[in-house]
Design brief:
The protein is of the alpha+beta class. The protein has helices at 19-25, 73-85, 139-148, 155-171, and strands at 3-7, 13-18, 29-37, 42-48, 59-60, 63-65, 91-102, 108-119, 131-138. The strands form 3 sheets. The chain has a 4-stranded mixed β-sheet with strand order 6-3-8-7, with helices on both faces.
Length: 173
């Protein structure tokens, strides 16, 4: 059983909980989202596998997950990027925030979310249990498409997009 780290609103550890149970009960837990850009400043999107425990078949950021108890957020980010997308790159944490949204299948995402940005110019090697597709997308086009077709994107990705814009502009300089 995979465990997540329960935290308070200041990201102080409170214990751990089985991942699915934490999502059923909407308990605040630590998580991360990774946004990888290429030389053209296009963002790598992942299409979540349709059979995922929530938000299956939706487009989202490059990679996202949860650190395990005893694992730093950065260690977990590197581990999951390699496991899900089959590559490694330098990652820089840019900001964090707490959000709480209802998902499909009676689950709730209540996360203290750490946002990382990285650079990579190759092609990922997808883990077929995690992702069923990927693409590079211009950030401005992505933003427009999210407004036009919000239902094809994960809720946390939509929440993060507005917050991410200033960091992408400063990151690309």
């Amino acid at each position: 059983m995979e465990q997540v780290v329960l935290v308070d609103r200041q990201d102080k550890e409170l214990g751990s909980e089985e991942k699915l149970e934490a999502h059923r009960q909407g308990k605040l837990h630590r998580a991360f989202s990774i946004y990888v850009l290429n030389k053209q400043d296009k963002l790598m999107l992942q299409k979540r596998h349709s059979a995922k425990y929530h938000s299956g078949g939706l487009w989202t950021n490059t990679c996202c997950s949860h650190p395990r108890p005893g694992e730093t957020v950065l260690e977990a980010a590197h581990r999951r990027l390699k496991e899900e997308m089959g590559f490694s790159c330098e990652l820089k944490e840019k900001f964090s925030f707490v959000y709480n949204v209802k998902l499909d299948k009676g689950l709730t995402e209540h996360e203290y979310l750490h946002i990382f940005i990285g650079r990579f110019d190759g092609e990922p090697i997808l883990n077929p249990e995690e992702a069923e597709g990927w693409k590079w997308m211009d950030f401005k086009e992505l933003h427009k498409d999210m407004k036009k077709n919000p239902q094809v994107y994960t809720k946390w990705f939509r929440l993060t997009t507005d917050r991410l814009a200033p960091y992408l502009e400063s990151y690309s300089r």
